[in-house]
Amino acid sequence: MMNQIVQEAEFRYVEAGKGQPIIILHGLMGGLSNFEGVLDYFPPKGYQVIIPELPVYSFPVLNTSVKSLSEFLHKFILHKELKDVILLGNSLGGHVGLLYTKNHAEFVKGLILTGSSGLYENNMGDGYPKRGDYEYIKKKSQDVFYDPKIATKEIVDEVFESVNDRNKLVRTLALAKSAIRHNMAKELPKMETPTAIIWGADDSVTPPNVAEEFNHLLPDSNLYWIKSCGHAPMMEHPDQFNQILETWFDLRKF
């Protein structure tokens, strides 16, 4: 079960457990509940799992970028007085984790990328030309997953509301453009942080070749595939995702 959201200063987050800190970074359309399986599984095993709510809709438009989210993450880590953190990011959250690790490697013990942007992302496309069309948004939401049933009415309603709220839409597009502009291909070979790449073999948003390129460019990475899986492995196959993650933790002695 998702823990109660904690509000401290400008930060909202959920937290469970004590021990090695794992900070989870959600995607652009992802909520805190997307990682419920990780939040349930790892605290009993000696991990402190923290999921901050990234302020994707609250920055001024001109300051809405991957960089600003990375800076927000740094303020959060300092606020929580954390060190040697493991960052786990999905989609845009993976990109935020990559940029943070590049700029603040001394705070990061390990990095996990799943469906991460940073090299390439096939987003929902063309400024949501049919954003008032519920069936179109439903189809686009379903396309994120291998099993379209994972896109529940609650998920579709949330995406539909976001793309039809002008303030949210403007910031969504600003972040999508920022992610495209901030391609990290030239920076990745300099990043020596141990990295696990856990990817859906049927991801259509960040296709499998993106995972292979991450694995090629990052000096110290391990690539794991989950079959019959789309852009959000931690939602579609939470048990397998957790088992892969635990195997990697054991390998890296985390």
In short:
By secondary structure, the chain is α/β, with parallel strands linked by helices. It is built from 9 helices and 8 strands. It has helices at 36-41, 66-80, 92-103, 134-143, 153-164, 166-181, 208-217, 233-236, 238-252, and strands spanning 6-8, 11-16, 20-25, 47-52, 85-90, 108-114, 195-200, 221-226.
Q: Describe it for me?
A:
- With 254 residues, the chain is α/β, with parallel strands linked by helices.
- The chain has a single domain (6-122, 183-252), classed as 3-Layer(aba) Sandwich (Rossmann fold).
- Helix content is 39%, strand content 18%.
- It starts with 5 loop residues before the first strand and ends with a helix.
- Mean pLDDT is 90; it is low at 124-129.
CATH architecture verdict? 3-Layer(aba) Sandwich
Query: Whole-number average pLDDT?
Result: 90
Number of strands: 8
Question: How do the strands of the widest beta sheet line up side by side?
Answer: 1-2-4-3-5-6-7-8
Strands, helices and their partners?
Blueprint: E1 6-8, E2 11-16, E3 20-25, H1 36-41, E4 47-52, H2 66-80, E5 85-90, H3 92-103, E6 108-114, H4 134-143, H5 153-164, H6 166-181, E7 195-200, H7 208-217, E8 221-226, H8 233-236, H9 238-252
Parallel strand pairs: 3-4, 3-5, 5-6, 6-7, 7-8
Antiparallel strand pairs: 1-2, 2-4
Helix pairs in contact: 2-3, 4-5
